Amino acid sequence: MVAIVYSQVITLVVTCLGAFMILLDVNRVFSGANMAALIVGFASLGPIFFLAQFFQQVQGYTVLEAGLRTFPISMGAFLTAPFAGRLAGRIGPRLPIVLGGLLAGSALFLLMRLEPDSGYATLWWILGMLGIGFGLMLSPLTAAVFSATPPTRAGLGSSMFNTSNRFGNTLGIAVLGAFVVQQFSGNITSQLTQRGVPGPIGATIANKIAAAGAQASQVHLPGRLLLPPDALHQAINQAFVDALHGSFLITGIAFLAAAVLVAFLFQRQPARQMSVAPADAQVTTVATHRDRALLGVMLALVAHRAQQPEADPAVLAALSSAVDGRYPHDWSEAQRGRAVAQDVIEPLSLLLLTSSGSLEAGNANGGAPAASEMVPDAGETPPSGHLME
After folding, report:
1. How far apart are CA 85 and CA 259, in angstroms?
2. Does pTM top 0.70 for this prediction?
3. How many helices (H) and strands (E) does the chain have?
4. Is residue 283 in a domain?
5. Are residues 263 and 324 in the same domain?
6. Which DSSP state fits 57?
7. Is the pLDDT of residue 44 over 60?
8. I need a surface site. Which of 28, 93, 194, 289 has the fewest CB within 10 A?
C-alpha cells in the first residue's frame, strides 16, 4: 500500500507541475479549472466513504441505513448544482467556486468534532453543508472549462476535465485510505495502552485489527487480555474516529486550496480570452508534427521487425501485396515483404521523422515549408536496391 501511495503521489506531482506550467501559458482559466477539478476529486470521495464506514462499523447501522445517513450530501449537491450553473452564467464561475470551496472546507473542519456516540441531529446539517459546497463547485468548474475552450476543441477540454477529476478520485482514495489505516493502527495501540494493556500486546492487537478492516470484530485476540469486550470495542471505535479526524483535516485544507487557486487564477479571465484562438492554432500545429513523428516511429518499428529472421509471415505477406509486380515473380512472399520493408517502409519512416523535426525547428524560427512538400509520394518510390543509392 505504501508503494502505491508513493507512486500515486509522484505521478500527481509530475502531472500537476507539467500541466500547470504548460496550460498556464495557454489559458489561466482552463488550467485553474482542471487543477481545481483534480483537487476536488481528491477531497470529495474520501469523506463520503469514511462517513459510510463510520455509520456502519462504529454506530452499527446496516448498509442501507448508513447510505441513507449520507443522503444530505447528495441532496445538497443535487439542489445546488442548477442554481450554481445559472449563477455562474450571470456573474462568472469564480464566486460560486470560491464560495463552494469555503463551505466544503468549513464542513469538513466541523466534522473533526465527530465522536463515536455523536447523534445524527448534530451531523445532518454539516453533511448538507458539505453537499452544497460540492454543488457550488462542480457546475461552475465545468462551465469555466468550456468557456476557456474553443468550440472545435470542446471534446478535448471535456475529456481533460473528466480525467483530472477521476484521477483526483483515485488518488484521494489511495492516499487517504493509506493514511487512515496507518493512523488507525497507531491509535488502537495508544487507546489500549491508556486502558492498561502492555505495549507489545497492544501493538499486536492493533496490527491484527487494522489488517482485518471491516472484519475486525472477527479477529482472534489473546485469550488472557485483561480488558472487557465493551472497553475493547470502545477503544477500537475511538481509534477509528480519531483517524478520520486527520482525513477530514487534509480534505478540508484541499478544498480551501482549491478555492484560493481559483480566486488567484480566474481574476485575469477577461484579459486572457483573446489568446485562446492563437494558442489553439499553435497546439494544432504541434499536434500535427507530433502525429507525423509517431507515424514515422511506428513505420520504423514495422520495417525493423519485418527484416528479422523470425518476422511474422502475415506481416510479410501484407507488405508483399502492397507493391505487387514491383519485384521479380520468382521471389517468395517473405523475400518481397523484406524488400518492401527495406526499400519503402524504412526510408519513408526516416523522411517522416526528419520532416517533423525540421518543421518544428522551422516554426520556432518563424516558418517552414509544409510537411507534405518534404515527403515523397508512395508511387515515386524506386524499385528494390536503388532507393538509398
Report:
1. 17
2. no
3. 14, 0
4. no
5. no
6. I
7. yes
8. 194
